[in-house]
Amino acid sequence: MTVIENAQLKATIRHQGAELVSLFNKDHQLEYMWKGDPAYWAKHSPVLFPIVGSLKENVYYFNNTAYEMARHGFARDSKFTEERKESDRVDFLLLSSSETKKNYPFSFEFRIHYSLHDNQLSVGYSITNKGKEDMYFSVGGHPAFAIPLSENTHYTDYYLEFEKNETATRWPISAAGLIKTESLPFLQDAGKLPLSKDLFFEDAIVLKNLSSSFICLKSDSTPHGWKFDFTDFPYLGIWAARNADFVCIEPWCGIADSTDSDQQLIHKEGINCLPPTGIFSRVWTVELW
């Protein structure tokens, strides 16, 4: 485990998957991350790379070759190297290898940057194409935040509030984890989403191209919550395991295959193309109160 901290916050990251497992506010003596109870969901904040979500039949094709890959890719199960560390920041590195190329034929460097600034955590993803051809990939976050935050409050005391009122449909997910081809009404000029556990009984809420660049967790029963900024991520997932005491806010540059996908990697919705020597960077932040 690696620990970074400043006067207000303390973050703990494990090398397996470079996964954030704890985010503790010293001023309020509050843990903001889900505890990872395996009875519901054993993870805390997996990193999604080089795909987001599921592939149709867990297979994609590139240059007439079939490759298998499980949901959300291999980074979350890979051991990262701690590349550099200071008291309030740390960088982790994952390199392509003969093992990764069995499922993903590209040469890459994938860095994850964690840094603390006052009461805010920044998480950055940086991908470098080390190969001689265009590299196709997706990347995203999956942090699970504990709810309730305060004693004597309940899950349904909390709500999510978007930066702006949104009119947005929800893209349903099939039993195979694929995005269905028709969306459903969800938000109609609304900025607030009350939380309840049955909201996620049909899997994640998948939203595309929102007007908002951040979303907040709030409650009328406690002053504690957070602001999550997902600027530059075109897709947002909101999810919780059935009856679990958390909510995941998932900023994505990429999305699961659709049910009618042709499984060609270069045709995949939301796929990012990076030229040789190119660098792709995205950052999400969460501010705690």
Quick overview:
This protein has 289 residues and is mainly β.
How would you characterize this protein structure?
By secondary structure, the chain is mainly β. The protein has one domain (2-288): Beta-galactosidase, Chain A, domain 5. The protein contains no helices and 22 strands. The strands form 5 sheets. It has a 9-stranded antiparallel beta sheet, with no helix packed on it. Strands 12, 13, 16, 19 and 20 form a 5-stranded antiparallel beta sheet that branches. A hairpin with a 3-residue loop joins strand 1 and strand 2 (9-14). The protein starts with a strand and ends with a strand.
What is the share of helical residues?
under 10%
Rg over CA atoms: 19 Å
Derived structural class: mainly beta
Q: What is the global morphology? A: globular
Query: What's the domain count?
Result: 1
Look at the structure and give the CATH class.
Mainly Beta
In the predicted model, the low-confidence regions spanning at least 5 consecutive residues are: none
Order of helices and strands: EEEEEEEEEEEEEEEEEEEEEE
- Mean pLDDT comes to 97
Q: Could you tell me the CATH topology label.
A: Beta-galactosidase, Chain A, domain 5
Percent of sequence in beta strands: over 45%
Overall number of strands: 22
Features:
9-stranded antiparallel β-sheet; 289 residues; Beta-galactosidase, Chain A, domain 5; 5-stranded antiparallel β-sheet; mainly beta; single chain; 22 strands
